[in-house]
Design a protein that fits this description.
Strand content: under 5%
Structural class: mainly alpha
Helix content: 55-70%
Distance between the termini: 52 Å
Number of strands: 2
Radius of gyration: 26 Å
Order of helices and strands: HHHHHHHEHHEHHHHHH
């Protein structure tokens, strides 16, 4: 039975409860933008006139690559503002005064938020407002609103179809993941296309060998596992479009080619480093996802139901080892007790605090790596409850992710050169919560598919029974 809120006007518009949730997401996202822009929350309250003059005198930041990186970061961070705002408010596809008012509100939000953010940064010592950032955020917001104007109807129809079965859900999630993955590995898109650029990058030593001894130190194996794990969903997406007669040799060469292309693209990025072992790791992940995607999971239903909990328990030691590798445990000398106390005393507990002092690319990579690392907790908690026929609430996944991330971060106090980051705990909790809900969404879609097939089979049987009296008698022998 369909949820009452899923019945929408015209049959294709988002419902009121979806609109409320989109507005909630928009509010949370805008709050995160303001929060990240005001870190470290040390304010120098200037008079309004003086603050306004400092804002008007904000410089243009002109550096060879910093400007492009700042532009890209601000553009992509502001894109969801326009997209979510348009999706929440502009849900009517026919023209009229109401539609014009809603679109005006979305445009005002996209145009007013960036100057407000930059003006507030005048009050934070160490923050430098930039007119380039305002223009980039305007551009991103308007692009986000334009994306909804162009593809919003199609996306709404895809989401509506996703409520009817798992295939549409997988298509949406798969292509969204593919776009996001390519965006992340190529961030910040500061490509250098001048003649001889690749030769210069090779001469600078930006192409590392298959196993780079000096670069492959603490956490190298763990990061390679993350790179392979991040490409598994890509292989699962491609498996849905793999012809049945396609041979594995072609897919192996294709996966290696994909990894090589990604690493080659790193050579065109300012500051990018290519490594052959990373290309192999990405190819292995794609092939693993291809195997998973081509497997008929219905055959594994009974196995997972009977042995799902054994699978979780068996994979737990390996997973804990990977968490320790990513955290950098046992790969640096131990700290003394006084050093531990001093490090703990100097620790800043404010989320995203340390990301303010790192490069934007490094901060983004850290957030993505921690997200991939703790997604299995949400999946494992859902599988544990499903296999035991007693579903676990998402709070269990959140609790396990919080506890494990807290131990992993506090364990860094024991090793020199490492520093706990409370942001990783927040990311772990969010990743586990989202993964649990995605698993439940896919399970419900699969159940709807099976129920629809059962209804179709019952209807076919009923039609056969009704047709029997009308059948011609067999010919005489």
């Amino acid at each position: 039975m369909r949820h009452p809120a899923s019945v929408t006007e015209g049959g294709s518009e988002p419902s009121a409860w979806v609109t409320r949730r989109l507005l909630g997401l928009l509010s949370i996202y805008v709050g995160l933008i303001l929060y990240a822009s005001l870190i470290p929350f040390r304010f120098d309250l200037l008079p309004l006139g003086q603050a306004w003059e400092a804002f008007l005198a904000s410089p243009d930041m002109r550096s060879p690559y910093g400007t492009r990186e700042d532009w890209t970061t601000n553009l992509f961070l502001s894109l969801p503002v326009g997209l979510l705002g348009a999706a929440a408010l502009c849900r009517r596809w026919r023209f009229g005064p109401g539609t014009a008012i809603r679109w005006t509100g979305v445009l005002l939000l996209c145009l007013a938020l960036p100057p407000l953010v930059e003006l507030l940064q005048v009050l934070v010592p160490g923050r430098i407002p930039s007119r380039n950032d305002i223009v980039a955020q305007w551009t991103g917001g308007l692009i986000g609103a334009g994306l909804w104007a162009v593809g919003g109807r199609w996306l709404a129809e895809r989401l509506k179809a996703g409520r009817e079965g798992v295939r549409s859900i997988l298509d949406l999630l798969g292509w969204a993941y593919l776009i996001g993955y390519l965006g992340l590995v190529l961030f910040p898109f500061d490509f250098t296309f001048r003649p001889g650029a690749i030769g210069d990058r090779l001469a600078e030593g930006n192409l590392l060998p298959l196993v780079a001894g000096s670069s492959c130190r603490s956490g190298c194996l763990g990061h390679l596992l993350l790179e392979a794990g991040a490409t598994v969903p890509l292989g699962a997406v491609l498996a849905r479009y793999r012809p049945p007669q396609a041979g594995w040799a072609g897919w192996i060469f294709g996966a290696l080619g994909f990894g090589a292309l990604v690493e080659a693209a790193q050579l065109l990025l300012a500051g990018g480093v290519a490594q052959a072992v990373s290309a192999v790791a990405r190819a292995a992940g794609v092939l693993g996802g291809l195997v998973v995607g081509r497997t008929d999971l219905s055959r594994w239903h009974g196995i997972l139901l009977r042995h799902g909990r054994h699978l979780v328990l068996g994979a737990a030691p390996v997973y804990l080892l990977v968490v320790g590798l990513i955290a950098g445990w046992f790969q640096e000398p131990l700290r003394g007790l006084d050093e531990i106390r001093q490090t703990l005393h100097n620790l800043h507990w404010l989320p995203l605090y340390y990301h303010f002092y790192t490069g934007q690319s490094a901060a983004l990579y850290s957030l993505v790596a921690q997200t991939v690392l703790y997604v299995p907790i949400g999946l494992a908690c859902w599988l544990w409850g499903w296999a035991g026929r007693r579903p676990l609430p998402p709070g269990v996944a959140v609790g396990w992710a919080f506890g494990l991330a807290l131990v992993a971060e506090m364990g860094k106090l024991l090793f020199r050169g490492l520093r706990p980051d409370p942001t990783d705990v927040f990311v772990a909790v969010t990743a586990a919560w989202v993964a649990w809900h995605v698993a439940r969404l896919l399970h419900r879609g699969r159940r709807r598919d099976l129920l629809r097939r059962a209804d179709a089979f019952s209807a076919a049987q009923e039609i056969r029974e009704q047709a029997k009296p009308w059948a011609f008698p067999p010919p005489p022998s």
